[in-house]
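At this stage, I wrote out one protein's amino acid sequence and its C-alpha cells, and that material follows here:
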Amino acid sequence: MNRATLSLLAAATALAAVTGFAVVTAPDGAGGPDAKGAPATAAARQPVERSSLLCPAPSTSDLAETTYSAFTPRNDAAPGRGGDAKPGKAQLFPAGGKAADKPVVSLAGPGTPATVTASGAERPALVGTADGALAPGWAAQQTTKVAAGTSRGVLGVSCTAPDTAFWFPGASTAATRQDYVHLTNPDDSAAVADVELYGPQGSLKSEAGQNITVPPRSSVAVLLSTLSSTRVTDATVHVRTRAGRVAAAVQAVEAKAGSDWLAASADPSGSVVLPGIPADATSVRLVVFATGEDDADLKVRLAGANGSLTPAGAETLHVKSRMTSSLDLRDVTKGEAGSLVLTPSQGGRGAPVVAAVRIVRGTKDKQEVAFVPATAAIGARSTVADNRAQGGVLSLVAPGAAGEVKVTASAGSGGGAPVVKTYKVKAGTTQSLTAPVPTGLKGSYALTVETVSGGPVHAARMLQFPEDNVPMFTIQTLPDDRGTVVVPRAQSDLSVLDD
C-alpha cells in the first residue's frame, strides 16, 4: 500500500500554476501556532515568482511606429516583496514564433526599463513571462503612433495577464467604427473563446462569436461587426473562454476621431471609478452595462480638483439588467481635469456594473479619441511603463476618504536618476499633475505609485503626442500590480491512502 502525501502548500502551488502566479514557502512565524502553541496568522503575503503578460498585435498600417517598454520596480525596499529573490528573466517574444526566436524586449534587471521601437505593419502580438526578482510588479506597455490613414492616432495599451473572462463596455458595431477584439493565447494548447455582444436592447444574437479557436501561443483578431448584423453605437463585449485562457483587448478605429485601444473594465461592482478625464475633453460619453440579474440605478459624480459635483442633467443613470446604457456628458470637465465616480443611487452595495468612457479631444477634422475603463484602486502598488520626457499627465482620485501615495519616476531606459515624490489627495477630488521626470532622463521611464496611507486611490496616466494640430493622446489606468500573493502555511499533511 502506497501513501501519497499532499501538503497545503503543494495545493497552493498547484492553484498558483493555474492562475499564472507561483508561490514561495512562507517564512517561519508567518503562520501556524507559535512555540507556546498560540495560534498565529494563517497565511502570509509573499512575492509572486512568475508573471505572464501579453501584448496584442499593434497595427496593420505601414506607417505605424510601435514602442515596446517593459519594467519591474525594485522590490528590496518593500517589506514582504522578496528583495533577496533570484535574479530571474523577463522577456516578451513574438506570439507564434519559434523556440529559437530572440525576445523582442528583455529586462536586464529591476529598476531600469527596457525599450524597443519597431516600424511597419503586421507586427506580431507578444507573449512573455517574468520570474525570480523580475516577476513582482512586472509591467509592459505598447504604444503605437500612426501619422495618417484610417487608423490615424496614438494607440496605447498596457500589456495584460491572461484570464478566462473580460468585459468591454464602450465598443461599437456602428458603420462609423471598426472595432476588433484581439485574443492572444500564451499556452501550448489551443484556447476556445466566446465573444458575446450586448446593445441597448440586450444580447445581439450571433453564432459567429461562439467557439472561436485561438491556436497555441498565437493571436486572432475578430471584427465585431461581422458577429452581428445589428448596428449599435454603444455595445458591450463579453469575452469568456470555454477552454484555456487568453488576454483580450479591443482596438477601436473611428472614421473621424482616430483610433485607440479599449482595455477591459475592472471586475463588475456596484460602485466604479473612471479616472483621468482630461481638462480639455470636448466629448465624454459614458457607457455602462449591468452584468447581473438586477437593474442598476447609479448616481453620477465628477470628482474635480476642489470636490465632487453632479453633472447638470446627468445626475443619475438607470441601467437595465444585461443591457448597455450610455450617457452623453459632452464637455463635462470644462477646463478642469476630473474623474467619474458611479455609486448606487439608494446606497448599499448595488447591482454590479462594468463601465468605460469614450473621450474626444479636439474638434472637426482635428479630433482624437481615447478610452478609459473603470479601474480598481492602485492597492499596494501599481506601475505604468513607457513615460516620456514631455506630455505625461498623472491623475489621482480619492473617491472616498483622503489618501496619500508615493510616486517614483524610475531611471530612464538610456540613463537618469530616479525621482520620488509624495502626494496627498483630498477626499472626493482628482489631483491632475505633470508626471514627475527622472533627473537627467535619457529614453523613456516608468511610473510606480504606492499607497502610503488613507483611503483607496485610483490612478491613470495620459501620454500626449500632438501633431499637425491634432491632440493625439492615449490613457492607461493603474490597478494593483498583484505583485504579491497570499500563501497559506502548511501546518499538517492531508494524506490519501492509495490501495
